[in-house]
Every structure is written in structure tokens, then in C-alpha cells.
Amino acid sequence: MGMLFELLPVAAFFGVYKLYGIYAATLTLIILVALQCLFQWIRHGQVSTMLKITFWLVLGFGGATLILRNPQFIMWKPTILQWLLALGFIGTGLFTDKPLTQRMLGAQVRMDEIHWRRLNVAWALFLTFSGGLNLLVAYSFSEATWVNFKLFGLMGLMLLFVMAQTAYIMRVAHPEEEAEAADNDEVNGSAH
Questions:
Q1: So where does this one cross the membrane (predicted)?
Q2: What's the pLDDT at 181?
């Protein structure tokens, strides 16, 4: 349900755009992301940082689109979000002991630090690239092409990237029994 929950506003944006245009789609997006925040707050007592960022970007850029009657603002939203996320990956990679990828997946996956750092760099590069690609499509093609790209192009790229990342993780991750043995060695103070 989590993935469907996250995709609902984007899918609704696409559907409403096809029926009623960019302004109705933008209003729908704002309302659905606000409802996602409300639902998450009611269900979990808090709203995730990612959803908060998304909400404020959708509200800001979507609001500007509606007030100024200029769709360019909502077209910038995916780029700004992706570039902010890229900065998060870069920042944790440079200024903290654990890269963001390790913070997000470290409880489920055991890998050497170099692999976490490589994944972190890969995410930063991917998000920077896809944010730039969004702008290229927004400014080089029609509004309808951009809407299609937003749903199918960006989602498709993300899916391919996650599949490649998963293959990489499966290749370099420590098997579960090795991870448990390493944990036991750390507790006992011995090393391999």
C-alpha cells in the first residue's frame, strides 16, 4: 500500500490533466498531498520529512502556478525536489559518518562502507541528472509531453535505477550469516 499511497497524487495529476488541464491537475495535486500528510499524521502521529518537503514544494510551486496562471512553476517542482534530495545525499556523504543510503537501508542490508558511499554518489548523480532532464523536457517540449514524461519517464527512470541499485546491493552485500558473525565479533571484541 505504501507505494500506491505515494503514487496516488502523481497518477491523479496525470488523469485530471488529461480531462481538465494543468490548473485543475495542479489543484488536485496540492489537495492530495495535503491529504497524504493528514493521513500520515493521523495514522503515525507524525509526517515524514520527505512528505513534508514534498508538501511545501507542491504548495509553493503549485500555488504559484495557480495564482500566476503559469504552469512553469509546477514543472520546476520535480527538479527542485530531486536536487534537494541530491544535496542531502551529497551532504551526508561529505559531512557525516554515515551516508544517507546507509541511514535508510543499513538496518536491512550489511555492506562495507565503500559500497554505501558508492550508492550515495550514485543516488546524488541520478537525482541531479533526472532533475536536469525534467527541465530539458519542460522547456523543450509541449506541456502535454512534460506531463507524460513526469509520470512515465521519471517513474520509469527511477524504476530502472532502483533495479540497478538492487542488483548492485545483491552483488556486494554480506550474506546474513556473515553479518551476524561480524556483529558477534564486534560484541566480543575480536576481528577476522
A1: 20-42, 49-68, 80-100, 121-139, 151-170
A2: 45
